[in-house]
Amino acid sequence: MKQSLVYLFLILLLASCGTQRLQVSKAETQALSRQLGFTVNKKDNIPLMREVCQWLGTPYRLGGTTRQGVDCSGFVGAVYQNVYHKKLHRTVADIYKLDCKRVGKRGVKQGDLLFFNFQKRHRRQLTHMGIFLKRGYFVHASTSKGVMVNHLSQSYYKKGWRKAGKINR
After folding, report:
1. Sorting pLDDT into bands at 50, 70 and 90, what band is 21?
2. pLDDT surpassing 80 at residue 123
3. Given 17, 53, 72, 100, which residue is catalytic?
4. Is 60 in contact with 144 (CB distance < 8 Å)?
5. Residue 142 belongs to a domain with what CATH number?
6. Mean pLDDT, all residues of the chain
7. 53 among known catalytic residues
8. Residue 99 lies in a domain
9. Which entry of 53, 85, 128, 151 is annotated as an active-site residue?
10. Is residue 10 part of a domain?
11. Catalytic residue among 100, 122, 140, 151
């Protein structure tokens, strides 16, 4: 009897050490899907999707890091701080150079960073960035429309694409 209780206690202890699954309702995934413009399901990175939705529509402000106004690297830094508790460097170039490990375009996963350059001159520089969400969709702080979701298949983003990176965690 005593031995059975010890085994039962150990089983309960080990079971409680497992990772807790995030509780997500169908209504929430539907709401996130409507806001983001693509299907979100329970297997997605829900904390990331929730955080992104809170930033949608935030106006662009050069040097900004808050929901009153944000630039692309300020937005990415704020999301990473809030979702992953990871502090990133402040500029696009420094984030790529100091915080990232390069990832091939086909190996990009939710939460990885995408880097762009839309300038005619200095094409090798990295001047813009966003966060990969799912199936080609990414979120970024656009200079004209603020924080928004776009797709990598759009010609503007195809032309500007430079690299992808995974944050060194």
Report:
1. low
2. no
3. 72
4. yes
5. 3.90.1720.10
6. 89
7. no
8. yes
9. 128
10. no
11. 140
